[in-house]
Amino acid sequence: MSKKILLIILLTMTLSSCWIRTGERRRNEEQTDFEIKSYYVESGIGNRYRPWKLLLCSNEEWVLVAWDLEEPRNTFFFTSDRGRNWVYCSELDVNFVCEEILADNDVLYCSVRDYSRVLNSSKILQSKDYGLNWKDLFAFDGNVEHLMVVDSTIAFQLCTEKKEECKDSSEINYTIHISNDMGIEWRILEPEVPFTSAFSGGEIMVGEYGNRNFVWEISPERQAVDTIHSDFYTMVQIIKGDDVIGVWNGGKADYFRVVGDSLAFLSRIKFERRLSDYIPEEIYQDDDVVYTSVLRPGYNPKYKMFASTDRARTWTQVSTRSEIDNQLDSVWTPEGNAWFMAGYKDRMVSYCVGYKNGKRQDFIKVIRPKLRLGDS
């Protein structure tokens, strides 16, 4: 009897181990759970401009940051009909470039850099009319590398340079700034360098390279720093959705979920060569729907896009090509062919520039989970 019990226990452990490994590797090759729809832009941004960044404020109202091909600057356009018709709003000063644009309670925030300087100067701008007018909030002698605003609490990461006396070298400093009153008072955090950070879902995740066993989760609203326990092999890069994070973990693209004060392993993405490194590059999350882009570095690097409907437990490799892509001679987007420009709710959207017989034809394409009976 004892031998039978032992055999049952061993079989149970073996099956459990196999299930975990299958869970790590489970990836659907066919795009069965997601669909891509596309439609032409009727009144676009013109041949002078190319799309740069996109912000989806609602289902209908979007803001596009475009690159001026005649002058080195960014220009803002607005649509109220899901990208079919666009109107000019405003433009930045020459050499100023938009790094991030986001919305909080119908107010837009944009971080910009002056690329005419060796160490760029940066500003954070605010607009209350979808980019028609902008107000300078803050200016810095340094680079704003991340920006987040949630319920009027603002947080950003700043990179500054300090010249050392009697030396040609300089010291580079990284700081995280948080304010609950839009800049009247600040809390400044200085992580141990080198580190990696991600701003998303109302939280900031910081991983210091020397610490395998924990990462910091910073709540700007509470101005609190929590310790999240982990067990990384090595942690070099972090990307963050709402509660799902991707980690370049010992050469692997691993995905975890924050559960209490720990990281729970969800899945691993890999493709092609067995011994290749895989780096999580981008992530967007809406509840259970998660999109991510993964890089296989090397002499011929490759990016691929994956999507999940079960909060990153399993993944489907998805194509970013639409019917319109297949009709045109060439298509260009700033994100390339393995990512979309912006997310809203369960979908992601890109403003694309296509050419047919030498004529430019702009269009919009959208990826989202396939509609099921009862969905809208």
Your description of this structure?
The chain is mainly beta and 376 residues long. The protein has a domain at 142-318: Neuraminidase (6 Propeller). It contains two helices and 30 strands. Strand 21 and strand 22 form a beta hairpin. The longest helix is centred in the first third of the chain and has 24 residues, at 2-25. 34% of the residues are buried. The model is unreliable at 1-27 (pLDDT under 50).
Cα end-to-end separation: 57 Å
Q: Architecture of the domain at 142-318 in CATH? A: 6 Propeller
What Rg, in angstroms, do the CA atoms define?
Answer: 23 Å
Oligomer: single chain
| The first-level CATH class name of the domain at 142-318 | Mainly Beta
What value does the average pLDDT take? Answer: 88
Unreliable residue runs: 1-27
Helix content: under 10%
Quick one: how many beta strands? 30
The proportion of strand residues reads over 45%
Main β-sheet, spatial strand arrangement? 1-26-25-24-23
Largest sheet: 5 strands, mixed
